[in-house]
Structure formats: structure tokens, C-alpha cells
Amino acid sequence: MTNLPVGIKAIAVSFPSTIRTNDYFRKNYPDLVAQAELKTYARTFSPVEGIPINELDIWTREMIPYLQDPFRGIIERRVLSAGESSLTLEYRAAKDALEAAKLSSKDIDLIIVTSMFPENTELGNASHLAGQLGFTGGAWNLQSTCSSPIIAFQTACALIQIGEYRNILVVLSQTTSRNCDEDDTLSFFMGDGAAAFVVGSLTANQGIISTKIVNTADTTGVFLNELSIDQLGNPRIFTRISKNANKVFRDMFVDFCRKCCLDAIEQAGLTIEQIDFFVFNTNTAWYSSVHIHALGIDPERTINCNPLYGNIGAPSAIVNLYHAAQAGKIRENDLILLYSFGGVSNAAATVIRWGNVDLGPAPIFSEKLIGAL
To answer: I need a surface site. Which of 82, 167, 272, 296 has the fewest CB within 10 A?
Structure first.
């Protein structure tokens, strides 16, 4: 592989039009909110009783401050409305990323897509998205759950560095709000969204430096996706979380973080103090603080968008990266560590030197949420 500088040239994000606040659940499901501690999400993420807080593991200690809140730190989540789908979100993010990069679909050589979940019971949305974009080249579906953005990024960089392609578009979506019953607390947790980024050549010494990926086979059985039939007779995937999920995360989440992040930094020939900014997927509100304490970093060197979106899965790390750049927390030539943990797939970290990255249009937020960034 050559040392051709390759990395992210542009990023865009896309969200549904419906914003579901906590007041929505309080108004429509008051009994559910009142009994939240008896339901799925609360049963899954509950502490070990009888252990002094100073003796607790990092995962449990950082989770405890959120346990008095039935919504576990989430303030809003974006959910699909009538006429919206994973494909409509992907298309908007893809178009915005291309426009930000000042490219058209004719300038792209390959599209890599992660859809959690696609519109039909098939492998993914890649060919459908390519058709909507008027793109005639290769369109691949890639699936590594929440670690998909880093796996896709490494794949795209490698293919460009060997001269196979020039520009690659990566598109990610998660639309799991429709995969759980609204009258279950799991719906408090789920949000929908999409992100897209263009990978291509950059200025010398910018772009990808190193990557470390390990599989997460030990999490098998934590998240279950069951194919069922809804009330209209249509196939529907339902997401379930096993009762031992918290134990699994408690026992291994920190180890995966340290293994991937520290190895990626070492492979880059750097120290953790030299990393300017850290970007993680934030599927719960305490993911960010667990990573902060696992790595011993300053909280100001990362970002947590979970309160704005809830669990948006595969796009999460890229959405955080987008908002960090938009807020001026990341500047050209900064060293960035991007890490994402995916259940029953991979944990992955990559070190990059940030380029002159163009950003798509910013989402519109409630005024009270701006401070959450």
C-alpha cells in the first residue's frame, strides 16, 4: 500500500422531520413512564446492588447518574414520519455530502452503504440508493452494526490508496424506532438518522494513519432482531435486548475501548496526549463518560450527541464527528481518534489527521438542546 494521503473530504447528516420529546411519552404513555423501572430498557441497564460506589467498575459507575431518569439522559429522538424511510434519509445525506464536496454522482467510483435496517427484507439499500442517485458503478452493502463507519472508512481508504478508485461515497442509516413497540421503554432509547461522507485524496500528511479492529463475538445474544409480521400483515423486524446485556457491557466494554484505541494510537507512532480530539459512538448517554474514564482523557476533548438523538446506531460516530467539526472543536491538521463499538460485529478505532473537510447543512435543533453539545 502506498502512503497516498486519503481521508474524509465531506460529511453530511440527515434526520426525520418528527421530533419525539420526553413530553410526548409523558402525555401519551403516562403509566409507562411511571412504571419505567419495570420495563425493558430499565431492566437491561441496572446496577449491581450492594457494592459501594467507589468499588464499582467504570461502566456501572458512569451509568448510575442516569438511573433516576426514566429516559436515561435522552431529551429528544428523531423518528420516521409517513413518507420517510431509511432510503429517503440516506438519499438526502448522500446528496448533501456530494454537494458539500462539490462533486456529482459521476465523480464517484463506488458507494458503500450500511442500512440498519433496509426497507425490504433483503441485504441492504445499496442498489436502491445508487438507482436514486443515477449512479451506475458498484454499490456495496456493508454490515458491521455500529462499527460500520470505521470498517467502511478503512475499506474505502485502502481501495483508493491502491489506485482502484478515486472517490468513494459511504452512507449509513439506522431506523430502528419502527422496530420496537411504542408502548415499551425501548422506544425511549431508539432514534432514526443517517450520515454520509466522501473519501478521497487529501493534502500531504492528512487522512488515515492507522486502524485497529477486533471482533466482538463475545456479545453474541445481547441484541436480538426477530422477523415478525405486523398488524397489517407486513414483515417487520423487532429489536430485543437480552436480560444479561448490562453484565456483558460491564465486563468487556472498557477492555474493547482500551484495546482498539491504545493499539491504534501506538500503531500511529503517537501517544494519547498527542490526540487532539476523540470521537465515539454514543448509543447511551454514558458511553461518552465511560470512554473518557477508560482512556483518562479530558471531557473537553470529545462530544456526546446522545441527548439530541438517542441511539442512532451506525451513523452515531459520524454524527458526533460532524457536530464536533461544525462546532469548531476540530480544526484542520488536528489528530483525531474515531472509535465505535458494534455488538456482535467489531470494535474499531482509527487515527486520522483532519483535512479541510466540507460539511453539509446543519440540522435544526430546539434552543434548549444547543448546550448539550
So the answer is: 82
